[in-house]
Fold this sequence. Notes:
The structure holds two protein chains of two kinds. By secondary structure, chain A is mainly beta. Chain A has six helices and 51 strands.
Amino acid sequence: MQKSLLLLLATIISISSFGQKVTLSGYIKDASSAETLIGATAYIYADAIGASSNEYGFYSISLDPGEYEVEFSYLGFETVVKKLELSENTKLDVELSLASTQIEEVVVLAEAEDQNVKDIEMSVNKLDINKIKSLPSLLGEVEIIRSIQLLPGVTSVGEGATGFNVRGGSIDQNLVLLDEAPVYNSSHLFGFFSVFNPDAVKDVKLYKGGIPARYGGRLSSILDVRMKEGNARQLEINGGVGLIFSRLSVEAPIIKDKMSFVAAARRSYIDVLAGPFLEGDDNVLNFYDLTLKTNYTINDNNRIYASGYFGRDNFGFGAAAGFNWGNSTASMRWNHVFGEKLFSNLTFFYSDYDYKINFGDDAANKFDWDAQIENLSTKLDFNYFLNPQNQLRFGAQGIFYDFEPGNAVGVSEGEVTDFSVEKKFALETSVYVENEQDISSKIKLNYGLRWSRFDYLGAGDRYILGEAPAAGEERPIIDVERVGSGESIANYSNFEPRFSIKYQLNETSSLKASYNRMAQYIHLLSNTTASTPVDVWTPSTNNIKPQMANQVALGYFRNFKNNTYELTTELYYKEYDDLIDYIDEADLILNPQLESQVVSGDGRAYGWEVMLEKKKGDLTGWVSYTLSRSERLIEGINQGNWYPSRFDQTHNLSLTGIYAFNDRVSASANFTLISGTPATFPTSRFEFQGYVIPHNAEDMRNNVRIPVYHRLDASVTIKGKKHEEKRWDGEWVFGIYNIYSRRNPFTIYFGQERDRVQPGANTITQATRLSVIGNFIPSVSYNFKFK
Amino acid sequence: MHTRYQHILCLATLILGLSACEDPIDVTLAEAEPLLVVDAWVDDRDQAQTIRVIWSQPYFEAEPLRGEENAQVLLIRDDLEVFDFSYEADGNYVWRPDDRPSLGEPGDGFALRVTVDGLEYIALAEINPVPEIDRIESQFRQEDIQYDEGYNAEFFARDIAGRTDAYWIKTFKNNVYLNKPEEINLALDAGFDQSGNTDGLIFIPPIRQNINPIPDPVEMDEEVPSPYDPGDTIRVELHSMSLDGFTYMGTIQDQLLNSFNGIFALPLINTEGNIFRDLGNDELGERILGHFNIASVSSMEHIVQE
């Protein structure tokens, strides 16, 4: 393995060792806050070469010595052109100013605006936080996870369900990163709000395909959320008062231009709103989060960052019962520049998701339960700006997992029972190398290889299982072998090749294709429609194989009218191996013998996505449409035939428009139309012991579709008057979610009437539509900024 | 099986309930042929024992069930004693104590043989033992997450140690069986399922307390009636089950309570019983609907005092 990596490295380096070059490098920043810009470009027209800034705002271009005109640009910012005489390696940090609307009209359209056509990336959506903020939202809360559901290829099982589904994958197949630390449960209040505080977010990028080798560990997508560094120039306070949250964030320089911080907090009001429904004073119902980050620029070549997130949802019903859950993450990073071309980043992170439940206020009769996934990781990434034609990235990562599937202790009449399931440990390691290469002015490649390894470690039990008596039934436990601390219970390794190619058809259009293979070693155990906060993660074992996916995608990218319109259309096909599912009546919680109840199967997903976006003018917005299929093949389910997954949606259309009336008033609207998701309906009923039992005579899974989902939302934002000297900016946002009060079904369930069936009476069975949002929901919020 | 889970989900749906709405709708379902059902849950008490042979019907059809009149229903004990169940009405086949006071006692094994339209069906079961109920207590309680305001009861019994036992706890209020899906009360040893090491313990609190009637839904301003009133008679019966009977009832419980799970619903799955077509020569054919279990029963009565 190492040999092949070295060979690849050597080949790449040999391509490029010619001539004496000088290097221009540095950081591209926002002039107002000194915040670094991700994906900004430095471009030299005369030679048609350039580079974009990486995740830390660093760029580097190698050139022959000479005189150059370098243009630095970033969408929404004024372009800066620098004339440079380069005779030796040069460091140049560039600051771009936010384009004001007046200037925008006269500015010559910058090259960066056709990045979607020129860049190699496909199946990637970048969401500017300002764009997310201008979309209409549920209860006026700016929402990252809900916003990405307006993009092609992204679905959800329904309103209020946690997480999101990308190109036919389940929610645990998304790697959600907050400053490089994984977030295991991205939701507050089940799935209504995400854990990301919009005031602390700088950049959101979703990879649905063509995933570069530097990412791995999940099958379907990478949601890379980067936090702001904090204004390094002046104090900035952002905040808002909404119906759900009130928010406050503070950013300020600690040492001007060298050290800054951002601290952002949110707390919900739901306990206030729900007060009248909850009797008793000692009920608790709230959620909050705190996001912190600081950075310090030691010198031109060294910068360090520390960031953290802490969030919690709390439900308490007096002393009788309580339930709370939350994530915490912490990451420490060190950016170091070796010379002018080699950028490195070293990350240490800690991430944790846990929940706690308790019942009973009497010491002799109570139940306490908690579960956790915790991990520690070290990651080293290099970014080598070899020459303008090659940008090499390589690195390695190790993640140590500590799973606590459940610690539960019950006390019954003073008798103590310990239900706890033993801790599980695992180590996931990976190395990768990837190169982005310009073959010619038309062809650009990104190729790479990732090698990953997973070790499921003791101390623990290795379960030896026999064959299931029939498909879809529990496998018998033949033997249990005890494995000592640190010894291997099972291990797996995989090569994950990645490849993308772009072919430039002409100035305004390109064709792109990609292939990626992904391996996933940890799995979220969930068999409910929407995942619950009590679902636990579990490692691959000798019985639970890693899940694998292979994806190919083909895309056509075209810009119209001076890059005013961007058209993206893609076809994808994805195959899954060893997806996990469960036997009927599986006990996923507090079950030490869980492995015997897990079954595996195959999946496939394919679709056509199209997105047309208008990026400039008073009216901006997009149309996104997806035609897709997501299917599963699992022994013992649906009589062993392919069936649609619960989040399969044939058609998914969304229209989003934002209109700026003037500097102060803007309005936005969003319309969503989605095919009904599949569900399993009974055909028959029978009586057993006086109960009426539903029965599906064909034993089919997801055999019908619930009615179509559609919804219209709108909002109006009114900003306060602008004064040059005024430091306080305020805005009111008025919105209506689900304007025409459609009762979109989340599900249709079957059951008997809620009233007691009287002796001798026939039981009435009925179908009931559950709409999570049953009405239009108006909202008002006030946001402010103080600088 | 998922009862513990459902407690959590209840909390969840309570919160979601604030914005959610539910309304009955018309749905067209696929048609299916009637399927044979054998409901053969009998016990070892000295009273009439009934086995039902009926047919399934379309899901929304609330008409009286179609009983099978022309079946032959036999129970054969492992000492080859045969109990012939004779047809009475509505698909009910009944055996009444004769010179034999009951079907048997714990430890006895049985075969069920049912013949319908010339086809034979067979199932096996054994009588498992059941512990005595120690006591039932009732008291007035204030409302909280566990209790409705009013007289609430709790029973106490200890699981038989040294073996995996399954029980169905049935409660009768003034001799009327509490028949709501939420009132199905199952136990594996003294807990909900195999994951807890509850062998030989006193039943855990949620099982002890699930003998209180669940009120029908009321309007916001209406008062929830007290579960029991002074003078009410509570009878708790402990029925032993086989482990596959426990799984069967667990599936039924999950499916019936699934409508309470909201966005956290489980997929609809079919029950899998233990009655199969007998093809002769020790070969079994397809599984039919229903289940065969023979219980041992202990019971206790309690009158609610002021």
